[in-house]
Amino acid sequence: MNSFILGMDSQNVQKVIIGVFSLAAFALLWELMAIYVNNSFYLPRFTNVASAFFKVIQSAVFLNDVGISLYHFLIGFFFALLIGVPIGMAMGWFPILDKIFNPAVEIFRPIPPLAWIPFAIIWLKLMHQAAGFIIFMGMVFPIIISTYSGFKNVPRIYVEAAKVLNSATPSKLIRNVAIPAASPMILSGIKTAMGVGWMCLAASEMFGVSDSGIGYKIWFYYGIQAMDHVVVYMLILGFIGLFMDFFFRYFIQNRILKWQKGTVV
Amino acid sequence: MGELVIQNLSKIFKKGNQEVPALLNIDITVKDGEFVTILGPSGCGKTTLLRIIAGLETYTGGTVSLDGELITGPGPKRGMVFQEYSLFPWKTVLGNIMFGPLMRGVSKKEAEEKAFSYLELVGLSDFKNSYPYELSGGMKQRVAIARALANDPEILLMDEPFGALDAQTRNNLQNELLRIWQEEKRTIVFVTHSVDEAVFLSDRIVILSKRPGTIKKEIPIFIPLPRDRTRPEENRIRNEVLRLLDTNANPRPNE
């Protein structure tokens, strides 16, 4: 055994070993099924996908596609945070604003974000902003709702404790009590929104809102029947999503919420 | 200074069209440096009274003033220790204690020094960087006391602060509170439903009646500190208080 494995406790070693075997078995099963099906349009072979994968990630357009997709994603993410968090806070903290915003939010929230594609194209043309807009529509509501309920459920005891400690104005209470108290909820909403946004990304690029990006490439290779490349880009979408999730959990959530350790959430 | 004057105070809660009186004709004067306990059966409005003094609750009639200043909302002159654990879970012990001074505009360095000294006072210097979830119930309440004191209040309001603690921790914290009170010489208004606690701690016990709360009697205690939990002198007062609370007299089937 090498030091990499020796450095982990036996529970994790077991997890890694089983994981590797399970993936290998899955790949083998896939390969066998593809050989049996014998139709690369229906089911490309694992080995073909693997070699296409290495070809793709070495190509120059690959980084461009990933970059464009991340750009779309960040446009949506940025505006979803910029608009969703303040609206959620306002609705959660001031009952009158809750009453004002609530009807509109409730009407627009259930509309699937992809239903906005026609307007995205009319308003923003076939530009990156159009894809960003679809992603925004997918992300903004989970962020509003989680910020809203985080703010609504700030324990009263913390508000009162702050009030008797020179922090009685609304702005001080929001800054010093509501935001930290609601942060677990807000962050979990952002995490949900990132998942939704990533789904919208693939769809918006596929449905013609964009002329490049990972989702666009899936549609493009489907058009030329290169299904091994389709699978490669599907996997890349999955890997990036997985990485974002990991990054968010370990570098943001755990750091900001370290005070929560030991509590059951 | 920390002289609290409550005159003819009343509090009526409105529930729809119904008016539910919670407190009626309360007159209490607490002298600077005095330790007064408010005692009464549950639901008598003793917590409401304390919350009114803190400025967390409005009142319907009468006046409440501290050092001649009418109380209309929360203010730094009145510190509060709650029954529930009220430490901010997202702040460390030190961060919690520094909160009040920082909010008042004290410099960070000064707030930190202040926090250190009060942390020492409650004997938790080693836990300055711990988060509340890492502390026991008793430790949490000690930090809560330090947090309230670090804000330099004239009067410390305590709402059954040891109610959730086990008996032994409770006794320890009562002893510590007395030590802190003697060192700090601050006015304390303490709400409890424990007769033992009231007799052990206070200069004076104010006994409230059942809802609506009115003052039934004030009993000064002249036994010098430290008091004993089992001596006949203390027992005599305890019996008197228990009789006034008439927990056993006139039992009503619905209560």
Using brief descriptors, characterize the structure shown.
heterodimer; A: 265 residues; mainly alpha; MetI-like fold; 2 domains; 11 helices; 80% helix; 0% strand; B: 255 residues; alpha/beta; Rossmann fold; six-stranded mixed β-sheet; four-stranded antiparallel β-sheet; 7 helices; 10 strands
What would you say about this model in short?
The complex is a heterodimer of chains A (265) and B (255). With 265 residues, chain A is an all-alpha fold.
The number of helical segments of chain A is 11
Number of strand elements of chain A: 0
pLDDT < 50 stretches of chain B: none
Please, how many helices of chain B?
A: 7
Q: Tally the beta strands of chain B.
A: 10
Describe the model.
The complex is a heterodimer of chains A (265) and B (255). Chain A is an all-alpha fold. Chain A has two domains: 14-39; 44-258, Orthogonal Bundle (MetI-like fold), CATH 1.10.3720. Helix content of chain A is 80%, strand content 0%. Chain A contains eleven helices and no strands. Chain A has helices spanning 3-6, 10-37, 46-58, 60-93, 95-108, 117-124, 128-152, 156-163, 170-206, 214-223, 227-256. The mean pLDDT of chain A is 90. With 255 residues, chain B is of the alpha/beta class. Chain B has two domains: 4-77 and 153-245, P-loop containing nucleotide triphosphate hydrolases (Rossmann fold), CATH 3.40.50.300; 84-152, no CATH class. Helices cover 34% and strands 25% of the residues of chain B. Chain B has seven helices and ten strands. Chain B has helices spanning 46-54, 93-103, 108-121, 137-149, 167-184, 195-201, 232-245; strands spanning 4-15, 18-30, 35-39, 61-66, 69-70, 78-81, 155-159, 187-192, 204-208, 215-220. A six-stranded mixed sheet of chain B has the order 6-7-8-3-9-10, sandwiched between helices. In chain B, strands 2-1-4-5 form a four-stranded antiparallel sheet, with helices on one face. The radius of gyration of chain B is 18 Å and the shape is globular. The mean pLDDT of chain B is 89.
